[in-house]
Amino acid sequence: MTHQMKVPFFRPSVGDAEIDAVAECMRSGWLTTGPNAAEFEKRFSAMLGEGTHAVAVNSATAALHLGLEAMGVGPGSEVIVPTLTFTATAEVVRYLGATPVFVDMDPETLCLDLQDTEAAVTPKTKAIMPVHFAGRPANLTRLREIADRHGILILDDAAHALPASHKGKPIGDCLADVTAFSFYANKTMTTGEGGMLVTRNDQIASRSRTMRLHGMDRDVFNRFTDTKASWVYDVVAPGYKYNLTDVAAAMGLVQHARLDEFLEKRTRLAAEYDSALSDLPITLPPHAAPEDTHSWHLYIIRLADDAPVDRDTFITRLQEAGIGCSVHYRPLHQMSVWKPYCSGKSFPAADDYFNRCVSIPLFMDMNAPEQERVIEVLHSILGGQS
Ligand SMILES: *Cc1c(COP(=O)(O)O)cnc(C)c1O
Questions:
Q1: Catalytic, out of 124, 167, 187, 345
Q2: What angle do CA 328, 89, 163 make, to 5 degrees?
Q3: pTM (2 decimals)?
Q4: What's the gap in Å between 159 CA and the centre of ligand 1?
Q5: Most buried residue among 17, 32, 103, 286 by CB atoms closer than 10 A?
Q6: Domains in the chain, ordered, with CATH?
Q7: d(Cα 89, Cα 129) in Å, to the nearest integer?
Q8: How far is CA 146 from CA 83, 95, 150, 367, 375, in A?
Q9: What is the pLDDT of residues 186-242, one digit of tens each?
Q10: Closest ligand 1 atom to Cα of 193
Q11: Active-site residue flag, 187
């Protein structure tokens, strides 16, 4: 039977506790941003560190947009973005009329290349957006040195990195000016769609809170719980509609309480792959630096030169065997919309990476027979011993 078992690339881990919490919210009569969102923000910032502000929003893309807006990025600004990321990292720069400046990846870390990053700084550079790729923290110590040397800010795209840490400090309260987390369906915790902006900067937090809800100086929950009349508010800027619903936050509270359990399972699955796949003609994913921790959002293998099949054939074989997989990502400099921003530049590390990379299944509820099946299929395609 096991040879017929299908293994999906991902399955969210949603149980009765999430379902009950959502049902309770729906019965409560308060659906939009309210007590659950406030409690979710409170617990999120408490987890990261006292004094952090957490601003709940409806996606990481929204958090990235709000972060850049609050940093004063606008027309004429440049923002440094790795080419190896999801398009959201770059698109928010364009929302504000600024220019994304793409840099190559470091094949050792899958994060942005530090030399290329510093070389890309110009007098117009306002911010660097590191992505903690697959959940492996970027070298924020070195990035902070580069940023401080040039007087620029760091906006962490931490969509893969919950929870993760650099030199003992959690991503979200570690050397970046602003951090954005994602609760999209296939991230390390989910609210269906959702995100969180985190910062220690009071002005950025306050501006983000205002801009996430139409530029109003009081949010909807305050308006209905304050003693002041609900219609008394001012609009101070043309804001956005980025607030998180209380239905989503109800789910977020349950998932957030499970983060340690999620991390432990992911770390165990990654270690199992590491030992079971070590004899194959592939490069295993990089581990976190010695004092860092990895969230293991993704487990990405890279086919070696002596692999018996190329990357696309490998994916076809996986699909034929019923194993889900994915590619993270086609680098942005290869995408039509971003090519014009890359003329005259080359990205040899990301091009090479893209020709070899495959993300294999790793998710909280993956069971031992499922992982054994993935390992068995990889051996049968790549010719190691099974
Ligand atoms: C998922 C993801 C995003 C976008 O997250 P949303 O919550 O879907 O907006 C941004 N950057 C990276 C690297 C991602 O993986």
A1: 187
A2: 70
A3: 0.97
A4: 5
A5: 103
A6: 16-257 (3.40.640.10), 259-382 (3.90.1150.10)
A7: 8
A8: 19, 25, 6, 43, 41
A9: 999 999 999 999 999 999 999 999 999 999 987 766 666 777 777 788 999 999 999
A10: 7
A11: yes
